[in-house]
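Why predict the complex rather than its parts? Because the way molecules touch one another can change local conformation, and only a joint prediction can capture that. The input here totals 683 residues.
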Amino acid sequence: MKLHPLSVVYRTGASVARLAWIAVVGAVSSSQFDRFEVAVAGLLALVVLAAFAYQVIYVRRFDYQPTTDTFDLRSGVVSRRTREIPYRRVQNVDVSRNVLQRVLGIAELRVETAGGGETEIRLRYVSHPEAERLQQEIGRRKRGTDGDDEDTPTAGSSVQQLFAITPKELLLLGLVRVDLRLLSFATVLLPVIIPSVSNRFPLVDLLQAAPVLLVGVVLLALVISSLRAVTGYYGFELSRDDRELRYRRGLAQEYSGAIPLDKVQSVVVSESVLARLLGYASLSVETAGYAPGTDGTGSQSAVPIADRDRVFRLAREVESFGDPAFERPPKRARTRYAIRYSLGVALLAGLGVVAARLLPFPVPVPGYAPLALLPLAPVAAHLKWTQIGFALGANHVVACEGFWTRQTRVVPYYRVQTLAESATVFQRRRNLATLVVDTAGAQGIGSADARALDIGGDRAGELRQELESRFETALAAARTDDAVSPAAGIDSTVTPGSAPSAGE
Amino acid sequence: MSGDAVESAVRRIDEGDEPSPALTGPERQLDGRVRVIWALRALVSAFTLGVGGAVVGFFVADDPIVPGTVLFAVIFALGLAFAVLRYQSWRYEVRDDSLFLDRGVLTRVRTVVPYVRVQHVDVSRGPLERTLGLASVVVYTAGSRGADVTIPGLEPERAEDLQARLKRLAIAAEGEDAV
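Output of the joint prediction:
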């Protein structure tokens, strides 16, 4: 089957926009010549024409075909590629369209499998109904039912809505989902802004202006990030049938996707300080499908924000981990953090003293001022310590940590990839160790493994052996489950992987 | 000695389809020559840093020799000590259900890799390893820590034997749909 004809238009526009800098460079360099406008127009026309021709060929040559067992793809203009993806290996299927694509009535379909650094199938672009149809067909083929009964969106299974965001929750999300990563832009922006300001004012004024500037940039970052959260999750809806979670969200750019429940690697409940105070939390579901950095806005997010109890209820619906009784790290771990933070403060003070010596003008505060933070070190250590916990449930290992954003990770024993017990010199001094439970989750920034941080050294060894034997048990159970009943509802019997075993 | 035991085990396996328990083995150390590789690496980094120290010394105190040599000597000595200690700390064990590694000087790490989770096994031989007649085995899982599991400093035959054994054990463990 072919892509939508209008994708030529959109793709040409996109590649021209990408190549626009060439035109700009051309314009600047040709400005010395006489027929400046003509040259620019000619160049631009050439670029547009070339891009158009390329995209026409691309779209003509692009061919996709959902067959019974595999999704086949033929593509490529210069070097041609044929690809077959077995449905069994498919992790997530996502459909997205931005405003322009909505006007043109087209959408992008992405199919992810585990492994590989990038998305395996990207259909850019098909008509929106076709994208939705494919999404459902792939889902249907995955579970082995015949895909002939088309035009029945709820084919064979009951779709049940789990969650729909309310306006209040959306506003809260804008408040809570402050993306601190945007602040890194501030550090890029400030050196650009400061020189232009310092040209106008003497240096002493700059020292007073800097905090104001910083606050301004931070505020801007906050506003942008909350706007992004609100538009990105506008109209968020989560529903499920017997095998999949489905979401839909977005105001300007619309996303929808399907997360197969039998591919879920881990479930994470995140609560920032603010969210904890307000009694809210968010839920994300990790599969092995997403390549690093494909979507920074967190397309794995199952529930962006909701009442804490509700989030845990929903999480338990995906992985029924019960009510874990958390095991706390020993008190000597807290001592360790206190010492670590104190040393950090001391280092800061030392740097401050050196800086105060080296700077050519008097600094309003003495260099050792950071020492005032010292009393905070034990407090910070205690706060960090109180958030750490680790529990072995019937079918899951649950770990939580983090003060600023507490993340509770739930990993079914069946999903364990490797176990690593590590102890640094400093940890060994206090007989502490950390046990990391690695899963095949996404590798993006900010994704972390479940771990028992700073537990007793002997306990770590015990836990490692215990986890290993529980893993083997879960594996054996999954094998017999597979043999007996491959399909079931979403409960604990399915969570240890109901994926058909490979290679038969 | 034990090398013969492994060889006979491999022969036994090559004859039958079923992997035998002889595939697994007791805790093992690396080949002692791996210390030479680590020491040579330490030499290279000590030399680089020594040159850096000499340059800084030249600009700050007009004396490139003393800071350069001192830095080189200290780093090289540390590197040598580390090479020895690291070798002493390294243990690996091909167990019934999983590969177990125990190593680390400053940070001690014990890793368990269940055979079911093994995606593929590489034998790699860098130029240094080739000159010394050594090889490394790299075990890949689908985990986010990817190629974290490397066993360096093995004799090539042992590396290939380990690769074959891990392959057989992984197949015997029935590659479940891990992801």
